Amino acid sequence: AAIELSLRKALERNELALYYQPKVSLKDQKVMGFEALLRWNHPEMGLVSPVDFIPIAEESGLIVPIGSWVIETACRQIRAWSDAGFNELKVAVNLSARQTKSIALIDDVLNALRKSGLHPWQLELEITESMLMDNIHDNMDLLENLQAAGIFLSIDDFGTGYSSMAYLKRLPIDQLKIDRAFIKDIPGDGDDEAIVSAIVDMAHRLGIAVVAEGAETCEQIAFLEAAGCDAVQGFYVSHPLTADDVPQFLERHN
Length: 254
Ligand code: G
Ligand code: G
Ligand code: MN
Ligand code: NA
Prior knowledge:
Blueprint: H1 2-10, E1 16-25, E2 31-42, E3 46-48, H2 50-60, H3 63-83, E4 90-94, H4 97-100, H5 104-116, E5 123-128, H6 129-134, H7 136-148, E6 152-158, H8 165-170, E7 175-178, H9 190-205, E8 209-212, H10 218-226, E9 231-232, E10 241-242, H11 246-253
Parallel strand pairs: 2-4, 4-5, 5-6, 6-7, 7-8, 8-9
Antiparallel strand pairs: 1-2, 1-9, 1-10, 2-3
The chain binds guanosine-5'-monophosphate (G) (2 copies), manganese (II) ion and sodium ion.
Manganese (II) ion (MN) binds at residues 35, 94, 126, 156.
Organism: Undibacterium terreum
Domain EAL: 1-254
Protein name: Diguanylate cyclase (GGDEF) domain-containing protein
């Protein structure tokens, strides 16, 4: 299709960009790092959401070179901010299903770390709960290899994808990101409050950190803090920022 053809050209034409959404610790308000979010600046269509082009990239296999560009660009960018004197920040990159099945992934990750000089723990990889459970045996091996390399591993959109407690116990996971569906009606919805509190307690007992996604209000932040959640990401703290806007954000928030 025409869109696939123009996506194929997008990388070489410099039409892809990363936005960065901050993640803030609830313990001390410190900026821990950013989630890198891919955007396509199409010459005619304008800004295209990943929701619309990631499926095409997956289907066509273009996600492998694009994903590799995302990992390398995110690592270089975080390294540049560290060199500029900001704290040692983490950067989180979203993986797609096709990437987790690609043998190139580990090499891409190790190359990006080597070229940028980032510490492995500064790179966080996010894999959605449903993607993880879809192919749990292969993913278990992949996560074990990534963990052995020192990479920080998160389960994205947690709570929407049927993971069994048995796997949660065995998976080499550092962090859960609670899906924003559970955050949007707290405080107030007693069921969601119970679910969020229970996820936090369970994760902590397993030695796993917890981030809440999609926090938009001061009341949500207060609830999450009281529930013992480690960190938040969401419009309340900041929308995803262009790389140019990040240094100013960091100056104001640390
Ligand atoms: O940033 P936004 O809300 O538009 O993102 C929409 C979806 O696209 C989210 O599910 C997010 O995880 C996904 N996404 C954003 N950037 C990337 C990326 O670099 N790779 C993959 N695979 N998914 C991404
Ligand atoms: O699926 P994933 O969790 O990776 O999706 C990340 C996407 O969620 C980002 O693209 C971002 O645009 C969106 N997002 C981030 N914070 C908020 C928020 O507070 N509210 C809503 N509705 N969306 C958010
Ligand atoms: Mn994510
Ligand atoms: Na995601």
